[in-house]
Amino acid sequence: MADDPDPIKKKGQICEANFFTAELALQRGLKEEARRLFGLALVDCPPMFVEAQAAAAEVKMLGGSP
């Protein structure tokens, strides 16, 4: 659940939720939805999160700019 009273922890949880939901969308062939969710992950992920780097790579692979 991405609903923590600590705003920093909550942002990290939202980052992870968006990233993994994007991965699922990508597996289902929903490229535009995946790109949208990876973009949201990029906004919310702290730079030190591996999901931030992975989301940037996925957006690039999908033809967008991180």
Mind explaining what this structure looks like?
By secondary structure, the chain is mainly alpha-helical. It has one domain. 71% of the residues lie in helices and 0% in strands. The protein is built from 3 helices and no strands. Helix 1 packs antiparallel against helix 2 and helix 2 runs antiparallel to helix 3. The longest helix is centred in the N-terminal third of the chain and has 21 residues. 24% of the residues are buried.
Secondary-structure blueprint of this entry?
Blueprint: H1 7-27, H2 31-44, H3 50-61
Helix pairs in contact: 1-2, 2-3
Index terms:
single chain; 66 residues; mainly alpha; 0% strand
Q: Which H/E pattern describes the elements?
A: HHH
Mean pLDDT across all amino acids: 88
Secondary-structure-derived class: mainly alpha
3D shape: globular
Span of the ends, CA to CA: 26 Å
Which runs of at least 5 residues are low in confidence (pLDDT < 50)? none
The tally of strands reads: 0
What is the helix tally? Answer: 3
Helix amount: over 70%
**Main beta sheet:** none
Content of β-strand: under 5%
Number of domains: 1
Rg computed from alpha carbons, rounded to a whole number of angstroms: 11 Å
